[in-house]
Design brief:
Elements lengths: L2 H14 L6 H12 L5 H18 L1 H12 L6 H22 L1 H6 L4 H17 L12 H13 L7 H11 L4 H26 L1 H6 L4 H27 L6 H23 L1
Amino acid sequence: MNLIEIIILAIVQGITEWLPISSSGHLVILQQLWGLNVPVFFDVTLHIGTLISVLVFFQKDVSKMLKAVARLDFKTGEGKLAALIFVGSIPTAVIGFLFKDRLESFFSNLLAVGVAFIVTGCIIYASKLSRDRNKSINYFDVLLIGTAQGIALIPGVSRSGITISIGLLRSVKKEKALQYSFLLYIPAVIGATIGTSVTEWKSLTATEINVLSIAFGLVITAIVGYVFLKLLFKVVVKEKFHVFAYYCWTLGLIIVLTRILYSMSIV
């Protein structure tokens, strides 16, 4: 990859990781269009960039939770939230472990990505159906949200889109649904990064790395991610979250129709 491609991919990752329009789906589209074979190391770097953005955004919450866990205090609000994040991470980890090969196969299937975008749009739009959003999040809610995050390993399924939507459909307070969705991302990406580093160690060490370019991409992803994380909070609070469904539907239909027409031309 050249520097321009690195910058574009970094910006796309920073925007689409938090907006409910699937970062993995967009990266698959760009890689297919440009004929890129993105190194595993760079993919890991992009996710570290968005991890930095969410850690900075929620630094006070994360700090309080870590202190509560260190004290083994799970009765305070921060301690309970830490326990909820742990429980919600379990179905994500199970899905990622059991269906790893199947999930990875979708990254080379643009038709599946298009369908996933359409399904994501439907779930996001459905989130507006719930109006009474005053409930505190409970363990059943987080199991559903954690399962949704696991399903979002499919490219084209937006992680933020379906986890926030599930929270809203469960009548969880908007701010709490957002907070939980993004905090749940932290252990997921840390676990995925460690897992990838272990299983793909040979690929990581064999990759020729331009440290300056990679560092540049990481910084861009972190900065752009932070900006769009703040933007999404404003959108959800203003009850405009469902408008992203139109984007997902449009992009999904374009991909599906393009793939169908392409297959017909080959036949």
